[in-house]
Write a structure and sequence with these properties.
The chain has about 350 residues and is an alpha/beta fold. Helix content is about 50%, strand content about 15%. It has ten helices and eleven strands. It has a six-stranded mixed β-sheet with strand order 7-6-8-5-9-11, with helices on both faces.
Amino acid sequence: MSLSRRIFLKGAAATGALSALSVPAFASTIKWDLADEYGAQAVSGKASNFFIETMSKKVGDVFSLTYQGSGALGYKSVDHFDAVQDGAVQAAVTLVTQIGGIDPLFDLSSLPFLASTPDEAYLLWKAAREEYAKIFEENDMILLWAMPNPPSGVNAPAPVTSMDAIKGLRIRTYDKNGTETFINAGASPLQVAWSDLIPQLSTGGIDGVLTSADGARQLSIWDYLSDYTELNYAMGLFMCHVNRDAFEDLPENVQAAMLESIDECDARNWEIMSDSIETAYAEMEENGMTVTRDTEVPAEVFAALQEAAADVKAAWLERTGARGEAVFARFEELKAATNG
């Protein structure tokens, strides 16, 4: 992190500390903020608010967690790791595909065609959770729960029923994995932050978007593009993480409630993700979009995209070494146990 960035974050943290000192001594409610680049209607927002409701039920008015969605605090997912680490905000829900530069393990959930169903995405999270937790622990944070994005597909002017639909497509990707995969597939990808998508679409800077159907619904993408193709490309994870010092300053019953909420939140979050898929498809079709299901996509298209992704997976394993190999092995073990 750059010096100027760290100074800014520490300044923000100091400002927060001064504000806290100004609270009257009789105030009994501990107040935290939960930052989210996305909005309350996004899956990350729904997960955040379920967590807030769960904590309220467990501890009542002792602890108050305020959802700060749509980047209200000025942070994007790419900023959250530093902001929470330095105490500029106590907690965040972060799309970890945006912070692969901090540790390549964060790129795992966006490896193309690794987890192709919600159940497999859950097993992948379980396989890697311990490794994720170590990264946060080493950086003065605590990892809580995860929220999976619905499976990514391609929004474009035409359905992706042949590789010709990909050739030269100026498609928005959300991380390095997607960018490299679509370059290999013959597209002209551009990594674009969520908040910059509408300007890029409206000015013609891009003519395709790699995102979930739920993401497309949030953007009202039918105002710009006519087709959505279901590819089950990847299910990138959001993760909720909190500042360790702030956590340890909480009363023991609040700490316990926060940790006890993890499994409950995970279970509910996967339900939210699964429910969002058909809901989004219905709204897209109501607004004139054509939704092409994966069963309508020729096998040769999937084969070509998987081939385009092969080098991406190999490079990830090279970057992560034994950690990546161990996660892959654990993932295969969990799948075998589930299917057996």
